[in-house]
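User: I'm putting together notes for a lab meeting next week and I want to include a structural view of one of the chains we've been expressing. I don't have a solved structure, so I'd like a prediction I can at least talk through. The sequence is below, exactly as it appears in our construct file.
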Amino acid sequence: MRGLARCALAAFGLGYVFQPQPALAFGNCADPAYVSTLHGATPTSTCEERDTFALVHGRGTSAVRVVSFTSATHGEDAEWSARVERNLAAIGTAMQSMGAVGTGEITIVLVGKEDAEGNEGEATITASAPNSARSECAVSIYKLPEGYSERHFDFLLAHEIFHCAQFVTYGLIAADELWWAEGSAEHFAHMAVPDASDFGWYADFDRRSTTEPLTAMQYENVVFFHWINQQVGPVGVANFLSALGAEGDAALRTWVDSAAWAVFTEALIEGQIRSPGGTAVPAATEFTGDYIVDDTVDLPVTIAPFVASRYKLRFDKEKHFEVRLSGADGALVRMQDDAAAWSDLPLFVSTCPDEVTRLAYAVTADSATSATVNFAKEGVDGAGACCLEGEWTPTAETLAGLASFGADYGGPALAMQGGEMTCTYDGGEVRLTFHGDGSGSLRFDGHATSCVARIHGQSMTTTGTRNGSFDFDWTAKTEDGGRATYSGNSVIWTMAIKLGPVVQTMTNPDAGPSTRANGFAFTCTETTLDIMGLYGLSTYENRFSRPPPPTP
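Assistant: Thanks for the context. Below is the predicted structure for the 552-residue chain, given as structure tokens.
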């Protein structure tokens, strides 16, 4: 059967009840009818017994017989037979780690080049159902084709013996069950021979899984079973196989739901899957789609059960995109953020200052569906819009100018009465932030201005303190103009009025903007921002700064 070739997973803890099968005799090598059932036999073949060994597994002990065909001359049978014996210990240990997994008698047929008749480099298995007249499982191993290493022999032997265990433990394997029969046998071989090569199946899974489901592949599914083993361990893998043997593909949908399939897809994309020996399965390099997003575009997405549909999205630099998802009923559509963490599709993607590559996937364990992801380019392209992004703080001159606004507003009236007023910045912070996702805020943390009014020998001090933020969504419409849509207001004013020894304090919320949206003008450089028209700012409060980016 082999050419050279946290979520629903908690259910893997369930046990499997088996019925032991009686031990029956090996087939008779002197019987031509028996010999003809062995893969690699010719019409004139006879077989000769070489050795008999014991395989200790999770259900007890089984005899393993080694035979070879006498129709071919190959004098190395003793060496290969000894290699079979050495491997049985590791194979048995791997089976025991899976719990109640075992096999009946096994005949290993050593097939030489002369016997292969064009089948060099293959290992095949023939076996009867456990409840048939003969419980023996016959494995034919072709020896020494070109490029066929001794360690490869070990790996193939473990793979095929696990097929024998599948027949006994889980029942006769149907053609539509090869997706898990071959994938799990390949995984088991990595348990018994942890330093083995992947023989190209990892790359094949990477390629095929972009459009094909698990159930359409065979040996390639070793990647999936490596991941299952990481989640629930060898006993969990065995119990999963038990459910598949009893329930068919329905068990796959019961035990691996859409959320679990999404976790697998993320691990595949990130290269987080490892073989039982600890070797990493390379991160996915093949994608269902690889798109350049440089303008408003609709991307159609087809989502099929147990297909690891994944996409590479390359967003052109100095742009802003609003993201909308339609369809995808019952499916999970997620994208990596700037920190490479997975989340639902963002509302906004910014490519300031450089192009951005994001990985995304769309998966389901349920019914096939489809979706459309719309990337709508917002506002104007270019460095002007990008320049706004980040956090800005007012300069000292701006803070002083803001304070003088109070004096300019109330001072003239007081001067007409023979008095005067002075105002100064009295502590606290102001932060203006334009986020790359199109949101922003003007935040006040204890920002205070104190004004002292003096008249006729008397003085009164008024200190106004702001806390909270004005929140808005923004987009740049031109290189020096934008639009803000106000989305929240949590600013609270605290006014403390001191007249002689008496202090009176009043706290009131800021009324907020009188319009839902308005335009603003700005001039922006890498380190300075002059901005006017945004609610909460004034003509005295128009220059902000930020530190220059660190030198690489």
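A couple of points you could mention at the meeting. Residues 222-247 form the longest helix (26 residues). The radius of gyration is 37 Å.

User: Perfect, that's what I needed.
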